[in-house]
Amino acid sequence: TTSRAVPESYVAVELSYFKASYAYDSVSFNGTETDITAYSPSTESCSEHCTSTQYFTFPIDNKDIELSAKNGLTYDVHATNGTSKLSFTIPAGYFQAVLDEKALQLEHAPSVIQQPVAEVKVESKDSKPVEMSKYWFDEATAAEQEQFTEWAFANRKSISTQLKSDSKSVEMLSYWYEKASTEDRAQILTWLLNK
Q1: Is the per-residue pLDDT at 47 higher than 70?
Q2: pLDDT in tens, 137-179
Q3: Residue 143 half-sphere exposure, CB side, CA atoms within 13 Å?
Q4: How far apart, in whole angstroms, are the C-alpha atoms of residue 16 and residue 187?
Q5: Which SS3 state, helix, strand or coil, does residue 183 take?
Q6: 97 vs 25, which has greater pLDDT?
């Protein structure tokens, strides 16, 4: 029988955050830490605030893919010298889809498989307050979006004024923004800047 060379699998990440003096250079999951590999140069964009975006991959082996297809994958991104750590979760469904695709490729492939068996691209901004803030922002009218954006930037360090509105969308936006951690708020504001 012809042996089939299976390429290394990896996760591709696009990570945006408020510009800082550090950059992220390693990832840890399931008890191991590994360096990240840039697949495109980092970029910066500035309007009222400056944001940095890093584009990188990190390797993941078949054992971890199979485990993640059951439980999802939670990974931490680390900046140099422990200056910052962000934690993200990729749902199990992504990995189950990868396994299904791999099974199809193995069934119909020639002796060498050309594609990597796993390329999962995620935008790393998915804590509950961030996710719900995005949802309710998209439900709001343009005027409500503008009202929330002004309030959110004014209260980015701490909540000093309440956001008053009869709108369900605005009410839920302020609720989730107030529940957000400092890092979550930075992600929400970065997302608003990119809208």
Answers
A1: yes
A2: 999 999 999 999 889 888 887 888 888 888 888 899 999 998 8
A3: 2
A4: 8
A5: helix
A6: 25
Crossing angle of helices 92-108/62-71, nearest 10°? 130
Tell me the two tokens of residue 60. 């993941």
* Long-range contacts of the stretch 146-150 (C-beta < 8 A, 24+): 148/173, 148/174, 148/177, 149/192
Dist. CA 174–CA 195, nearest whole Å: 18
Helix (H, G, I), strand (E, B) or coil at 132: helix
Q: How far apart, in whole angstroms, are the C-alpha atoms of residue 35 and residue 33?
A: 7
Beta-bridged to residue 53, according to DSSP, are 16, 43
What's residue 113's pLDDT? 45
Task: Say if strands 37-46 and 50-59 run parallel, antiparallel, or are unpaired.
Answer: antiparallel
